[in-house]
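Progress narrative, work stream C.
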Amino acid sequence: MANLNFKHLRYFWMVAKAGSIARASERLHLTPQSISGQLREFEEALGVQLLRRAGRGLELTEAGQRILGYAEQIFSLGEEMLAALRDTTQSQTVTFRVGIADSVPKMVAYRLVEPSLRLDEPVKLICREGSLANLLGELAVHRLDMVIADRPVPENLNVRAYTHFLGASGVSILGAKTLVDKSSPSFPQGLDGAPFLMPGAEVALHARLLRWFEAERLSPRIVGEFDDSALMLAFGQAGAGFFAAPTAIERQLVRQHELVVVGHIESVRDQIYAITNERKLSHPIIAAVCRFAQHDIFGAATPAAPHRTRQRSSSG
């Protein structure tokens, strides 16, 4: 193919977004037959099948998914160009799209991403939240620039992406003051039989906490498991149970949510990663965020003085 037919590409993009030729024809004000003919010409020119029948609708082939990713970028840039022409004050603004896995504490995510708004170059920040698998799918088709997660790219996901380690923090055990006041004063023994809020089974910290409980011969009463860290925090603040959070954000949690620190677990590490499409971080905003995380967040994480804590070394 000597040249790319952008009209054909736009028709394909609209059909892929609409999910059917009929719905796309309504938006494009063209007959379904006309669009079908244009799509056939596009597939013949590319030499690949882009769409196939799936029940009463259409689904993308693997080649179609790849082409859709490029189309999203092309037409997104086109829309940004038109917006910039309409508003010259936005002509220098760079859009930075970040996916944040549900399992990442929201305060950690904020501290990681917020420095992007303080760069010399104006940045428009777009944050998406969801499961790691869904976010990596968005990254694969270039709808996101970076994903923040608590684990590297899972081996069972066929996604071409690169994992960049940002840092690790010890874990703090916190609870509402009402819960702490009526619990055993010792740590970690006081957790035995106490109500505890666990991160969900898909959260990396889940297995590490279970191993630590076993090593310490502790059997807390698990009253809930939460995939979403913000929801777990809400239950913890209400006094439903003790919970674990990265020591890197301990001070902010204590100050903003009136929580009490009951102990620290240095042998359990909460790890944070940036996942990108780049092996080397050439994207200036991503590179700046990663540098800040490694030097200013995790490099300077120090715990606050715990409340009623008697720490003993863990064998796990």
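Work stream C, second folded protein:
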Amino acid sequence: MPSAWPLYERGYEREAIVNLYRFIDWIIQLPAELELEFRTELEQWEQEGRMPYLSTIERMARQEGLEQGERALILRQLARRFGEMSAQRQARIEALALPQLEELGEVLLDFQSGADLDIWLDETDA
């Protein structure tokens, strides 16, 4: 069975290889047992870290998911610490980029009140 490994070893990006295999699939389909063997080998190769696993779009989606998760966690922590949050304060937190969210996640334990959060947000916007 032809393997994708030589393509990876030659520096082809995953997206280009996937597109090539989509074209091949369009023209000819592998028998079920060879398809399973190919997918198993490909997954093993990816898990061993010998090639980039995610395409650009997949990396962007993962990054967005990380930001959403971080944002949701911080909002829950702040709500638990200071009670219900105003819509304006929540909107300001939702507008933060991931590095700012990470910083907020570290400093929020130092806040004594919601006013400390507002001061931090004002300084971050500057």
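Residues 5-47 form one domain. No further action is required on this item.
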